[in-house]
Amino acid sequence: MKNLKPVVLITGASSGIGEAIANKLMAEGYKVYGTSRRGATSGQHRFPMLELDVTDDASVATAVEKLLAREGRIDVLVNNAGFGIAPAVAEESSIEQAKALFDTNFLGVVRMTHAVVPQMRRQGSGRIINMSSILGVVPMPYVALYVASKHAVEGYSESLDHELRTQGIRVSAIEPAYTKTKFEANNIEPDTKRGEYESLRKHLAQVVGEAMKNADEPSVVADVVLTAIRAEKPKRRYTAGKAAAQLQFMRRFAPTGLLDSGIRKSLQLDA
Q: TM segments (predicted)?
């Protein structure tokens, strides 16, 4: 081993949750590498940044090969890269937009896993942390495609953990709720907007804006990621923050009608 510190690769680490995770793990003694589509920006981060586009097979392979040549191993993969679509009715996004969302949010996780697992298997150990969302288990309306992409991450993560645990590799999904980052501000707009939904979109934007005032700090998510990495017997799912824990509890134990009315109330919608 070229480096005695555990080596961590974090996708989408240029800002927000990814950057918070990187800084947290660095402070705890890990050797951290972040990635972004733009690669390194001099002096902007305390950790090295690799150029990597999770939607491009060649880009993924090149970045992973470069890191392995430098460090000799990858102990932890954090799949954080992703984006969302601004709240809107599902029919306002084209099939092309849906494909682009899944290509990053779900297939990006698959590409990174394919690239990293062979090395983890050879070394007989590894942790894969997939950044999901509490919306990966709660059916929130008006973000249907994003919800679907995170449901896919949840199912993939659980199945993958079953497959890899005999190889010394464990997989966990992290489920935050609203988090104070630029994520919502950077949501792309639906590409086939319909005029009859304009007032609804404005209403949803206002509701989300109010919710963000009480959102968790990215450090809350970073703390949970550290817990998942360090756990001797990691769980397959970890909620991050009070709101996510409450929604997970309701999803598991509350009657369907109660969860349904709670979701609609949170968005200030008619029952």
A: none
Question: DSSP labels for 161-173?
Answer: HHHHGGGTEEEEE
Q: Is 7 helix (H, G, I), strand (E, B) or coil?
A: strand
Determine the Cα–Cα distance for residues 254 and 66; give it in Å rounded to an integer: 48
- Residues constituting the chain: 271
141: tokens are 């309306």
CB 180: neighbour CB atoms within 10 A? Answer: 17
Other Cβ atoms less than 10 A from the Cβ of 36: the count is 23
41-59 pLDDT, tens digit per residue, is 645 889 999 999 999 999 9
pTM: 0.94
Dihedral sign (CA 131, 135, 138, 143): negative
202 to each of 17, 106, 265, how far by Cα in Å? 26, 28, 17
Model pLDDT for residues 58-99, shown as the tens digit of each residue: 999 999 999 999 999 999 999 999 999 999 999 999 999 999
Report all structural domains of the chain as residue ranges with CATH numbers, in order of start: 7-266 (3.40.50.720)
Nearest-Å Rg of the Cα atoms of the chain is 19
Q: What is the layout of strands, in order, in the sheet containing 237-240?
A: 49-51, 31-36, 7-10, 76-79, 126-131, 169-176, 237-240
Q: How far is CA 4 from CA 1, 23, 43, 72, 74, in A?
A: 7, 19, 25, 11, 12
- Contact 259/249 with Cβ under 8 angstroms? no
Could you tell me if 78 and 116 are in contact, meaning their C-beta atoms sit under 8 angstroms apart?
no
Assign 219 to helix, strand or coil: helix
138/182 Cα distance (integer angstroms): 22
Both tokens of 156, joined, read: 């993939």
